Amino acid sequence: xxxxxxxxxxxxxxxxxxxxxxxxxxxxxxxxxxxxxxxxxxxxxxxxxxxxxxxxxxxxxxxxxxxxxxxxxxxxxxxxxxxxxxxxxxxxxxxxxxxxxxxxxxxxxxxxxxxxxxxxxxxxxxxxxxxxxxxxxxxxxxxxxxxxxxxxxxxxxxxxxxxxxxxxxxxxxxxxxxxxxxxxxxxxxxxxxxxxxxxxxxxxxxxxxxxxxxxxxxxxxxxxxxxxxxxxxxxxxxxxxxxxxxxxxxxxxxxxxxxxxxxxxxxxxxxxxxxxxxxxxxxxxxxxxxxxxxxxxxxxxxxxxxxxxxxxxxxxxxxxxxxxxxxxxxxxxxxxxxxxxxxxxxxxxxxxxxxxxxxxxxxxxxxxxxxxxxxxxxxxxxxxxxxxxxxxxxxxxxxxxxxxxxxxxxxxxxxxxxxxxxxxxxxxxxxxxxxxxxxxxxxxxxxxxxxxxxxxxxxxxxxxxxxxxxxxxxxxxxxxxxxxxxxxxxxxxxxxxxxxxxxxxxxxxxxxxxxxxxxxxxxxxxxxxxxxxxxxxxxxxxxxxxxxxxxxxxxxxxxxxxxxxxxxxxxxxxxxxxxxxxxxxxxxxxxxxxxxxxxxxxxxxxxxxxxxxxxxxxxxxxxxxxxxxxxxxxxxxxxxxxxxxxxxxxxxxxxxxxxxxxxxxxxxxxxxxxxxxxxxxxxxx
Length: 685
Known about the structure:
CATH architecture of the largest domain: 3-Layer(aba) Sandwich
Strand order of the largest sheet: 1-2-4-3-5-6-9-10-11-12
Number of helices: 11
Largest sheet: 10 strands, mixed
Number of strands: 34
Shape: globular
């Protein structure tokens, strides 16, 4: 292992950086690692902290990695970034996410860390998204040296709360785009300065053998063993160490935090802020918090045995946002921090509201309304103003004004509220309904309606009605037969002000998040019976006991890796919905900010950009089409590699039609091209 010069910081420990080390697996494969180690750890061994992800330690996450890992090392921990098998400079092929091989490799990496002379034998895992998932998954194997986990923006249920399916329907927005991203990620080469002349052979082998993940994901449309593998909710008790679950209201993975707190019996804590899919020290929308300091307290307690009282503090801290006018560009939220001793909590009670045939949303303590029925508008155009399922805290990640969506939905409005309504937790919509088709969907949204009629999205939930009795046993509906179904909405925190109205909106689809059922559907909602909204309301007002630790207000200025931003000027996010009135066709184009950086440490350039297009024609659900294009560049001097992917998903009444294209260029010369095309039968979707 070769060291770079010691990093001089204001931290208690000087830090030695080892840009590359090999971790040998039992089958002979080598995983690539980067280490940040306190300079004196050789004589005074320290615990190790592991982040274990496929996003390439040398380039893609290098800038972000240094901010966290150098900080931990500067405070007395060996902090380590390992590329998964088949990614970065590591050996092998990546065949899918979260496979047993990935988990067993993680167990071996932990054992390797614990055995190093600079390690005290105690190891923690931290990670966001993929690294949050596999932190829980590796913990479920109970490796002896693993003493604690911090899991950020992750899930305990790979089917119900990830990018593949939503409410039992194919996740039209996230699934294809993420699969296209991973096809490009997996096609990036290892670094010649690390693996030597073998880099090109390894690169070509990866592109030839790594499959498009979307083919497997679309092939498993119900919650079968494919999804249960790696879902720690199948056996929470298998985890045998303290777990800190962290996320944000704008992130797609907030539900798992409350679910794990309620179901895991071991030491646990939860934290939910206003942020998107990002570490809270970078937290956007703000306020960001001193998350690195919070992690240190967690590690000090569980890896060093420091009695700092963190486990005597409230089990859950959540940010309760104030009402916000619909503003996609807002990057800061106002609100208060709340603390709960556990979850579920007696501080939150369920308040019932009753949708009525008149369109009102009445409190359930009034007289029973007469029975009635309301038709749900037949349209494919609800969902275009939704904002992303998983926001990253960017300028276009908030949903826009929902008035257009509401006008295309069945809505029920409360009277103006006489007092603030602080909502915290997961609402449920219980609906008596019938459908004129055997396959149908329903989406429910809750909105804050302002006195001037502006409509802010609070939360939403979706259900493929064939999955009404469980995601593992889909059953078609009997047309015309009334059934009672339950739609669970995403977890939320939101203070609805006095004078505003609460709106519940019902639609028969939510494109592009839900891939539509094959035929236009007429849903009828029956009111006056069991149809109701169950809303979690926090009755206890915020007080002194809710005040978070002082470091929450002071995000640490951790050292970023020195780099040059080469991103073209004017490169911005895209989120544009348009309608061709003549063709009755809707199109939504989304994309992330283009990114191009040069890293001084290695001389590597890294660039990526992506766009997604979703189209649908009114009255023709089978016209739905999703297209994702991705481009990735890696370069150093004359060595210049570019990878491009294009993934397309469409459907007939009976099949999904999937296409994936991969092109790779070396110094602008195409050296590889491959196309995968497949048809997969629809299974009650």
